[in-house]
Amino acid sequence: MKLTPALPILTALGIAVLLLLPADLRAAQSVDLSDMATSCLETPLDDCKVFSAGYLNTANFDDRDGAPFLAWQTQLGSTPTDGIIGGFVLFQHDGTGWSVLDSGFDGFFDVPRLNQESLLHVPGYSQGTGSFNTDRLYQWGDLGAAAPREGWSKIEMDQWLNEVGSLLPAGLEIWKGVEYDFSHPYSGLVARTPLWRSDDANCCGTGGSAVISLDIVDGGLVATGVAYTPPGKTK
C-alpha cells in the first residue's frame, strides 16, 4: 500500500465547528506555526524534514469563515531504534493560539483527510514489506461530559482485524495492511485488501480480494460485512 506524496503546503476545506477539545487530546502550551512549511515541530525525529504541511479551514459563513482550526505536518527523519521513519503532528486552534492535538512517529503518513461527517483520517503505513497500518482516526462529536461540549475523540482501529476472520471465505486471510476509505461516509466506511491462502508467498495473495464494510461502535471500528471478489474476477 503506497501513499501519494502531497504538495509542501495544502489547504483543504473542512467543516464548521466550535473547537473545544477533550483533555486527553489537548496540549496546554501554544505552538508557533510560522515556520511549519520548513521546520519540523514537536518531533523526536533526528535529521527531520517536513514532507507536507497545511491547514483545514472552517466554513461556517460568518465572521470566522475561512479561519483555520486544524493544521498538520507529516515528517521524515530517523531514530536510533527505528532507523528511517516518519511521523505526523496535528495542531488545533482554540481561537487564540495553536496547540498539539495528537502526533505519532511509528510509520509513514499522508495528508490528513476530513470527510463531511466529521471523521478526520491520517493515513499511515509501517516500515517493511508488510506495510501494516499505522493510520489514525478521530471523530468529532459530543464528548458526553457533565457540561455538554463537543470535541475530537480517537477511534480504535485494530480490533476489527482480529475479528474479521469469521466473515472471510474459508481458508483466506489478511496478511498485510489494508487500504482504508473513509471519504464517502454516505456510501459507508470500508477497507480494501487482497486475500492470502495459507501456501501463498508473503508478497502476493492469490485468494482474490475483499471490500470490508466498517462501522464505529463504542469508540472503535467493527467489521459489519465483506464483499468478496474471487481470483480472476473484477467488480
Summarize the amount of helix as a percent range: under 10%
Number of structural domains: 2
Q: In this structure, how is the largest beta sheet organized?
A: 6 strands, mixed
Beta-strand percentage range: 35-45%
Please count the helical segments: 1
Overall SS class = mainly beta
User: What general outline do the C-alpha atoms trace?
Assistant: globular
Averaged pLDDT, please? 84
List the secondary-structure elements in sequence, H or E: EEEEEEEEEEHEEEE
Question: Largest beta sheet: what is the strand line-up?
Answer: 1-2-3-4-5-8
Nearest-angstrom radius of gyration?
Answer: 19 Å
What would you say this structure looks like, in words?
This protein has 235 residues and is mainly beta. The chain folds into two domains: 1-154, no CATH class; 155-235. 2% of the residues lie in helices and 43% in strands. It is built from one helix and 14 strands; from the N terminus they run ββββββββββαββββ. The chain has one helix spanning 159-163, and strands spanning 9-13, 46-57, 68-79, 83-93, 98-109, 113-114, 119-122, 124-125, 136-142, 150-154, 179-181, 189-194, 209-217, 220-229. The strands form three sheets. A six-stranded mixed beta sheet has the order 1-2-3-4-5-8, with no helix packed on it. A hairpin with a 7-residue loop joins strand 9 (136-142) and strand 10 (150-154).
